[in-house]
Design brief:
Number of domains: 1
Low-confidence stretches: none
Largest sheet: 7 strands, antiparallel
Oligomer: single chain
Strand content: 25-35%
Distance between the termini: 42 Å
Structural class: alpha+beta
CATH architecture: 2-Layer Sandwich
Shape: globular
CATH superfamily: START domain
Helix content: 25-40%
Mean pLDDT: 96
CATH topology: Alpha-D-Glucose-1,6-Bisphosphate, Chain A, domain 4
Length: about 150
């Protein structure tokens, strides 16, 4: 049985307030995540834009913002690896993405969790998990570079 949860942790040499801004300011999020968003993140609302990652520029990006607990938790739901523009993924149950921040002596521990893969349709579950697992590895590197280069 495939895994149903992705978890990544990284120690960032930046204060919690800086990491929070990189996660929740839609322009900064877009820089490191490589998505051009139309407007700010608002709990209870959808965030829309398009992917700017090379090779994926033709894809729309959408997430439903769940929680924004300042400098502690940012979460949204989305449809993982929804990359076929001919497919309507809206009827599928989304996964939950959570970013948790904890202060440390040298900065911030950022924990990313994506859960709910057991609800992704069986025919695309393993690929969605595999692609997002690799994608989150890259995105953790991206945010690390972003906060280091733009303190």
């Amino acid at each position: 049985m495939p895994e149903n949860r992705i978890e990544k942790r990284i120690q960032l040499n930046a204060p919690v307030a800086r990491v929070w801004r990189a996660l929740t300011d839609y322009r900064e999020f877009g820089e490191w995540f490589r998505v051009a968003l139309e407007g700010p993140f608002v709990p209870g609302h959808s965030a829309h834009g398009h992917i700017t990652w090379p090779g994926y520029e033709h894809l729309a990006w959408e997430a439903n913002v769940q929680k924004m607990e300042p400098e502690r938790l940012f979460s949204f739901t989305w449809h993982p690896y929804a990359v076929d523009p001919a497919v309507d993924y809206s009827a599928e149950p989304p996964t939950l993405v959570e970013f948790r921040l904890e202060p440390t002596e040298t900065g911030t521990r950022l924990t990313l969790t994506e859960s709910g893969f057991e609800n992704v349709p069986a025919h695309r579950r393993a690929q969605a998990f595999r692609m997002n697992e690799g994608g989150w590895t890259q995105q953790m590197k991206n945010i690390e570079t972003h906060v280091a280069q733009k303190p």
